[in-house]
Amino acid sequence: MTVERGTIRLESLVKSYGRVTALDGVDLEVRAGELVTLVGPSGSGKSTILRLIAGLEQPDSGRVLLDGRDVSRIPPQRRAVAMVFQDYALYPHLTVRGNLMFGLRVRRVPRAEAERRARAAAERLGIADLLDRYPDQMSGGQRQRVALARALLREPSVYLLDEPMASLDAPLRFATRAELVALHRELGTTTIYVTHDQTEAMTLGDRVVVLDNGRVRQVGPPQEVYDRPADTFVARFLGNPPMNLVPGGGVLGGDAGVTIGVRPEDLALDEDGPVEATVEVVEHLGSEALLRTRCDDGTPLIVRAGPRPAVRPGDRVRLRADPQRLHRFDAESGRRR
Ligand code: ADP
Q1: Phi, psi dihedral angles at 118 (to 5 degrees)
Q2: Which of 20, 58, 198 best tests ligand 1's pocket when mutated (most atoms within 8 Å of CB)?
Q3: Arithmetic mean of pLDDT, 69-77
Q4: How far is the CA of 179 from the centre of ligand 1 (A)?
Q5: Around Cβ 115, how many Cβ atoms within 10 Å?
Q6: pLDDT tens-digit profile of 178-213?
Q7: Pick from 2, 44, 38: which is nearest to 159 by CA?
Q8: Ligand 1 centroid to 48 CA: how many Å?
Q9: Left, alpha or beta for 142 (phi > 0: left; psi -120 to 50: alpha)?
């Protein structure tokens, strides 16, 4: 059986640190060339998964397969992976050129060839003019590019990126995200990208893996996971503001055994709407407004309205939920029905 370079397969990975269970049976398959994002709250096990793939740690049980080969017992330097962390881990006493050439020289690439490759990687990431600088003479964004360029030079079959943009400011993240997508398209190298930021996870990933408490909650293309969350955890984790969930269905209709969910954008102000509520807060976000309302039975509902809505706190309003966009979950297990 031939397996394409760049496939990853995780089988029943379990990992504990003392009494803390970091991974509680994780299965995942990543196809060659995919960009998969791992997203979940802090402590859900995202970094642990990357460290196990990289070989920086061993699982208590389960297996890691790279390119179809069990690498569970193979040391990190012999796995064809390159990992980029949020702290760039550059050598402070080396220039950018030195940092980029270091790994090549360790692998006995001749100096002239190493220089040529370092420059090419630097040009690709737009940092060729920084080759003679030291890490402390650069901004966070520039250092991040150096770290990415260094990862490029390893020509791995898999990239593992652990919150690589966490220390960048919002505009730079936005720009870097687009570049990363373009770079991935160009290289076609399998990439796993860890983030706690759901926007980043949704915009970058071919598929999104949602983790909670050391378990995979759902895997799928971003829009699919958003439109059909597998459970109430995923429903609330992806989406900002989160999905409204009404136990028992209440004002949204339903019955005792279910929780009914509706996203804020699927609720509209409608004079003839069946749900009566009072507006408590209006948040103007410029391109839209969020209305925090409370129904007469006490149920809070957040409504995403257009910009400049004609309502104020204290106003009585009527709401209508898009019937095509109601989500039904089991009241007890939280699983989608
Ligand atoms: P995430 O990346 O999603 O924030 P981690 O994979 O870093 O989560 O951690 C998962 C869980 O394992 C957390 O509860 C964390 O505290 C614990 N953990 C991770 N690494 C260690 C460690 N070296 N020693 C003890 N506990 C750890």
Answers
A1: -60, -45
A2: 20
A3: 90
A4: 29
A5: 16
A6: 888 888 988 899 999 999 999 899 999 999 999 999
A7: 38
A8: 6
A9: alpha
**Residue 74: phi, psi to the nearest 5?**
-100, 135
Specify the residue for token string 């949602």: 210
For β-strands 69-70 and 61-66, DSSP reports them as antiparallel
Asked if pLDDT for residue 87 goes beyond 70, the answer is no
Q: What per-residue confidence (pLDDT) applies to 3?
A: 67
Sheet holding 244-247, edge to edge: 244-247, 258-262, 327-330
Report the run of H or E that residue 161 belongs to, with start and end: strand 158-162
User: Which residue has the CA at smallest separation from atom 26 of ligand 1?
Assistant: 17
CA of 136 to the centre of ligand 1 (A): 29
**Rounded CA gap, 331 and 283, in Å?**
30
Angle, CA 326 vertex, CA 334 and CA 287 arms, to 5°: 110
Ligand 1 centroid to Cα of residue 167, in Å, is 20
Bin 213: left if φ > 0, else alpha if -120 < ψ < 50, else beta. Answer: left
Tokens of 329: 């979950």
d(CA 246, CA 243): 10
Q: Which residues sit with their C-beta closer than 6 Å to ligand 1?
A: 17, 20, 22, 40, 42-48
Tell me the backbone φ, ψ of residue 305, rounded to 5 degrees: -110, 170
pTM of the prediction?
Answer: 0.90
Q: Is 75 helix (H, G, I), strand (E, B) or coil?
A: coil
Which protein residue has the closest C-alpha to ligand 1 atom 24? 17
Integer angstrom CA distances of residue 248 from 220, 255, 258: 28, 5, 5
Q: Which residue has a Cα nearest atom 14 of ligand 1? A: 43
CA of 25 to the centre of ligand 1 (A): 15
Separation CA 255–CA 274 (nearest Å): 17
CA–centroid distance, 298 to ligand 1, in Å, is 38
Which among 291, 188, 206, 213 is positioned nearest to 24, based on CA atoms? 213
- Which residue among 10, 26, 39, 47 is best mutated to probe the pocket of ligand 1, counting the most ligand atoms within 8 A of its Cβ? 47
4 CA to centre of own chain: 25
